[in-house]
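Quick review question:
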């Protein structure tokens, strides 16, 4: 017959295995807790990202950029009017050759300025149209968000930084140094 009596060392082993089993249950439940807290944190991050997406180009931003672009358009028109006045100066009023030469140079500079301002005015008006169409703030190449910080620095930006860098690189490869 077998001896059913257990030795003290067997009791210790049995007792310690219960402790291990008990502590593994604690670890298991704590890992479940940490797993669920991680999931909750990820959900919060996702919700934050969704709300940030909803915040991009909201009504407040649209109005901010509309006012900024309209101010730029007004400044452009004012500068263009000043340049046109210089271009219309009558050289006959000046008798001195130096004065006439100076006026001719100022007229030439004003002509270049008007050309640049016409281009800039067209860019501003295009940006205002994109704003009205709901396309302002999104990259024309990729459709991704350009970013509020970039738009505040350059309200006429049409491309994301990555797309602009890619275009610039392609232009350099093709020997073009402009967009």
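Suggested answer, residue by residue:
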């Amino acid at each position: 017959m077998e001896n059913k009596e257990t030795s003290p060392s067997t009791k210790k082993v049995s007792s310690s295995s219960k402790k291990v089993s008990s502590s593994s249950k604690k670890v298991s439940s704590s890992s479940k807790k940490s797993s669920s807290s991680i999931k909750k944190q990820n959900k919060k991050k996702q919700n934050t990202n969704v709300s940030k997406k909803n915040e991009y180009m909201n009504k407040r931003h649209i109005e901010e950029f509309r006012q900024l672009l309209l101010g730029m358009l007004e400044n452009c028109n004012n500068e263009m009017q000043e340049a046109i006045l210089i271009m219309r100066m009558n050289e006959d009023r000046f008798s001195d050759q130096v004065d006439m030469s100076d006026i001719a140079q100022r007229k030439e500079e004003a002509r270049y300025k008007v050309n640049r301002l016409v281009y800039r005015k067209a860019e501003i008006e295009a940006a205002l149209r994109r704003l009205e169409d709901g396309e302002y703030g999104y990259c024309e190449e990729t459709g991704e968000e350009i970013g509020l910080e970039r738009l505040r620095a350059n309200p006429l930006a049409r491309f994301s930084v990555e797309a602009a860098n890619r275009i610039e690189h392609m232009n350099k490869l093709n020997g073009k140094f402009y967009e």
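Why it works: DSSP finds five helices and no strands in the chain. The chain has two domains: 7-55, 57-173.
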